[in-house]
Design goal:
Layout (H helix, E strand, L loop, with lengths): L7 H4 L6 H4 L6 H15 L4 H20 L3 H18 L2 H15 L6 H20 L3 H14 L3 H17 L3 H15 L6 H18 L4 H15 L2 H17 L3 H18 L2 H12 L5 H41 L7
Helix pairs in contact: 3-4, 4-5, 5-6, 5-7, 6-7, 7-8, 7-9, 8-9, 9-10, 10-11, 11-12, 11-13, 12-13, 13-14, 14-15
Length: 335
Amino acid sequence: MKVRKPLLFFCLIIINTVSVFNTYLLPQTIKNSTTYYASIANNPELSLSLANAYKFFNKKKDECLKKHDTINAINHLRQLAIIQNELGDYLGCETNIVHALKLLNQLKETEITNESKVGLYNQIGRLNLILLKYETSLDYFKKGLKIAKHPRHINILQNNMALVYIKQLNFELAEKILAEIYEKSKTQVGAEQTTARALDNLGNVQAKLGRPVALDNLKKALKMRLEIKDNYGLYSSYSHLKEFYSDKKDVNKAVFYANQAYDVAKTVNSISYIEDALSNIISLSSDPNVLKYKQLKDSITNARQIADNKYALIKYDYLKKENEAKVDGTDYENH
C-alpha cells in the first residue's frame, strides 16, 4: 500500500536525498550504479523501478557489511529506507534507519558520520510526519538540529519543522521559522535555491495569515527561481500564485499561473506534477458540472488519503508490537 505524502506541493521538498547529507566519494564503477539507483529511489514513477533499486541497495548493503565497510553500508541502508518509505513499508523503513544509527554509534565521530546522523534523524522525522505523529516528528528534527553543523542541513531540518507546524495549522510558528531560514540563507554562498524555497513557502503561509506582504514574497521567490532555472521550484511558485489569486477570486490571473505550472510540469516530465497541474486547471473551470465533479473527486481522494494514513499508522503500530512480542517470546495476537 502506498500512502501519498502530505504537503507534496507545499514545499515540493521534504528533503530526503542521502546525497544532501553525505559527501564521501565512491569508486567510479560503484558510483555510477549507485547514482542511477539513487535517482530512481528519490524520483520514482514506477513501483517496479523501486523494486529493482531495492534489490540493488540491499545487495550492496550486505556486501559492505561483510567487508566491514560501515560508512557505505549506512549509506545503502538509508537508500533502502527511502524506498521503503515510498512503498509504504514504514516499519521496514524505521528498522533500516535504526540499524544505520546503531552502526554509526560504533564509529568515531567525524564530519561524515555527523552528516549521516543528521540525515537519519531527518529521515525518521519525515517518517513520523507521514504517520501523523507530529510531536515525534518534531522531536527527531530537533535532535538533528542539536548536532547539525552545516548551514544547509540546518535549513533543511527547520524547513521540515515548518511543514509539521503547517500540518498542525500553526501558521504563525511556521512563518517565524521560514522567515528565519530566509534571512540566514541570504548570506550563505550557493544557497539561492534554499532562499527561494524559504521565501516562497513564507509567502504562502503569509497568504493564509492575510499578511499584505505575501504577494510580494511569492513574486520575489518566482523571480529568483526563474534566474537560477529551478524548474521544480518554479512549479511550486506558480502553484502558490495560482492558489493566491484563486483565493482572491481573480480567475484570470489564477488561470494564467495554473497554465504556467502545467507547462513546467510537462518540462520536468513528472506524472504526479502533471496530474496535480491539470487538477488545478480544472478547479478554475466555470462549468458547474466540472466543478462539482472536481469537488467530489477531491473529497473522495482526501477521505481515502486520511483513511490510508490512519490504516498505515495502525498497521505500523501492530507490526511493531508484534515484532517486540516475538523478541519477548510472547504471542501478541493472544494478548
